[in-house]
Amino acid sequence: MPVREVDVAEISAAIAGACIKINYFLPDDMLAALGRARDTEESPAGRAALDVILENAEIAAQGEFPYCQDTGYTVVFLDIGQDVHLVGGDLMQAVDAGIRKGYKDGYLRMSIVADPLFGRENTGDNTPGMVHVRIVPGDGVRIQVDAKGGGSENKSRHKMLVPADGKQGVKDYVIETVQLMGPDACPPGIIGVGVGGNFEVSAELAKRALLRHPVGAANPDPAVAEFERELLDDVNALGLGPQSLGGRITALAVHVETFPTHIASLPVAVNTECHAHRTTVVEI
Questions:
Q1: With the C-alpha atoms ordered 207, 208, 214, 219, is the resulting torsion angle positive or negative?
Q2: Is the CB of residue 192 less than 8 Å from the CB of residue 204?
Q3: What is the DSSP string of 143-188?
Q4: Cα separation values, 127 from 110, 111, 130, 177, 187, Å
Q5: 3-state class (DSSP) for residue 281
Q6: Which residues are registered as beta bridge partners of 1?
Q7: For residue 12, how many C-alpha atoms fall within 13 Å in the half-sphere facing its CB?
Q8: Tens of pLDDT along the chain (284 residues)?
Q9: Cα–Cα distance, 170 to 164 (Å, whole number)
Q10: Which of 1, 32, 41, 182 is in the most buried spot, having the most CB atoms within 10 Å?
Q11: CA distance linking residue 103 with residue 33, whole number of Å
Q12: What pairs with residue 81 in β-bridges?
């Protein structure tokens, strides 16, 4: 297959547009999931919270205002075809240039500090982005951009279980994590669970799980899909409900991703996405 040239300026422009779009408009599948939650929630306080959430989404879209004041870390997943030749500059610089332009042109809050320990001075443009790159077959570039709020991200957890803990150990850890999240993760949202790999792979699996489309789509592995249904039922049986005001709908979906692991290991990571599920995909 002949090599296809892609100018990194195209990637930069796509990311800039995506940053603005996702902060103004919730994806249709998330709006549909919130609507279904509103129809099934039995708690009056929970229904009232969901009404406010849905009204907020409508106001944001009509006025092109940020859906949430926390416009997040910018997380960028790049799947780059092995038959693509990137030209025109440095890829990572192009990614950050797109974020910089999107957050400036969209009047979005800048939330990234340059040094996590000393000074914590804001970079002023929401860069650098949190970038994950995979080389895949083909001659295209797939870009998924997510604006990840700090409140929900702060409730992430990771643990190196042992094989003897098994499925029940993973389930117990997920449920414990959701209980600890309480209102701080702004439920209802999506629970992403990564199981397997190693320390860092399981965390990335959990983040990728959040971005599965559409919200609530089952894992293609029947056993994992059944585990997702069990986890969702158990999470919603906790009674936390929307904004932890009580009710049935604490999570709209639980997405689980797995990866092979060492015979002595059972890594598990839990990452949550609040109701501000701001993501989109652009393909070049």
A1: negative
A2: no
A3: EEEEEE-HHHHTT-EEEEE-GGGHHHHHHHHHHHHHHHHGGGG-SS
A4: 8, 9, 9, 29, 27
A5: strand
A6: none
A7: 18
A8: 689 999 999 999 999 999 999 999 999 999 999 999 999 999 999 999 999 999 999 999 998 899 999 999 999 999 999 999 999 999 999 999 999 999 999 999 999 999 999 999 999 999 999 999 999 999 999 999 999 999 999 999 999 999 999 999 999 999 999 999 999 999 999 999 999 999 999 999 999 999 999 999 999 999 999 999 999 999 999 999 999 999 999 999 999 999 999 999 999 999 999 999 999 999 99
A9: 11
A10: 41
A11: 27
A12: 136
DSSP tag of 243: G
The answer to whether 234 and 172 are in contact (CB under 8 A) is no
Any idea which residue has 């400036």 for tokens? 104
The two three-digit tokens of residue 202, written as one number = 């399981």
Structure tokens at 82: 């092995």
Q: Return all residues near 200 (Cβ < 8 A) that are at least 6 apart.
A: none
79 near 141, Cβ under 8 Å? yes
Reading the block at residue 145, the tokens are 């951009």
Contact predicate 78/134, CB 8 Å: yes
Helix H or strand E segment including 79: strand 73-81
Comparing CA positions, the residue from 174, 146, 157 lying closest to residue 251 is: 174
- Per the CB < 8 A criterion, the answer to whether 84 and 140 are in contact is yes
Q: Residue 9: exposed, middle, or buried by beta-carbon count in 10 A (0-12, 13-18, 19+)?
A: middle
Q: Is 216 helix (H, G, I), strand (E, B) or coil?
A: coil
User: Taking a C-beta distance cutoff of 8 angstroms, is the pair 273, 190 a contact?
Assistant: yes
